[in-house]
Specification:
18% strand, binds FE2/S2 (inorganic) cluster, three-stranded antiparallel beta sheet, Sufe protein. Chain: A, alpha+beta, 137 residues
Amino acid sequence: MPYSQKVLEHFKNPRNQGSIENPDAVGEKGNPVCGDVMKMYLKIGRNRAEEGGRGLSAEEFIEDIKFETLGCAAAIAVSSVLTEIAKGKTLDEALKINKDNIVEDLGGLPALKIHCSMLGVDALRKAIKNYQLRITN
Ligand code: FES
């Protein structure tokens, strides 16, 4: 299976690439087999109910998210689309994002590249866990 048009598009024009100055959390995940490394930066917002007036109770959410990825085309595309999926989600919602969500959003990935989607999920979850650990300590 070749890369989908969406994978190629996100690879050529990645969204939210770069870092966040003074992030609230960072999560990094590498794959020792292929050597690819993904880093996710988060800015956490609060009190969405007051800001957005959407009737939700005050909760923490991903206000901004950026990534730095040293990796294959699929890893770049996964990082890019994952930032789009995660932005604006509450931390609980973001923790539920799984590799199938990413693969589906990208219109599929070659079987050999499925692990690249897991790298993104792991880096995001690690960033959220790091944030939760930081604020409870
Ligand atoms: Fe390992 Fe893509 S080949 S993340």
